[in-house]
């Protein structure tokens, strides 16, 4: 009987030790990426100049090229999965994509569900209006009752709703479609990131739209990651730090944003008004 008791106790001890060994060697999210040899990145492919198709019909843009450079640093391939902006974050949460790069602001609400890399872009909110009449907008109070164009779940459309604008939502439309609708009166304005909007307005200079003087909501933008564990964030942040130190981020910024350096925190933005987006 004593022999049997000792044997049983020994088996329990071995089983417990075995459980700890398995726990210690549990695969991380980065291990899974390394094993498959690629990162899957959700992006729109329609957001000039961050994620779009150039004249050679190849996907490029500020954030696309950053992701390609990160892939080289981490020695993995980068596969882009294109979809409408309203489905991008969901794809990260569901595991369909490993991360997302499409001009996403870091917000407290999003940090409840996702991790973010270190920021690679500093900006604020801008406003595209009709060149002929400013779309009848002189102040933020004038947003009330106006038709705001954008993706349904974006931070900027949430701000527009909070200020009384009527949302007109689009599913992964290109900049020129947005601009033509503002110029024709189908919509009144496009609330969005200033640098993205300003660069696009200059590129599509003949479409009858312009940047308004109103500025608001300072922002930091980064890669969106799953909050399953920190392993992928740690790797991505290491790569971003190297790219920043080597000057690659500032070079890409100058290339895609008309010489502007969006990689450094902006001065005097604390003076800008801040509006809470409506869910």
UniProtKB/TrEMBL annotation:
Family matches, as Pfam families: SBP_bac_3 (PF00497)
Solute-binding protein family 3/N-terminal domain mapped to chain residues: 38-260
Keywords: Signal
Predominant location: other
InterPro entries xref list: SBP_3_CS (IPR018313), Solute-binding_3/MltF_N (IPR001638)
Localization annotation: Cell envelope
Signal sequence extent: 1-15
UniProt cross-references to Gene3D superfamilies, sorted A to Z: Periplasmic binding protein-like II
GO cellular component: cell envelope
Family indicated by similarity: Belongs to the bacterial solute-binding protein 3 family.
PANTHER family on file: ABC TRANSPORTER EXTRACELLULAR-BINDING PROTEIN YCKB-RELATED, MEMBRANE-BOUND LYTIC MUREIN TRANSGLYCOSYLASE F
Protein known as: Transporter substrate-binding domain-containing protein
Organism per entry: Jeotgalibaca porci
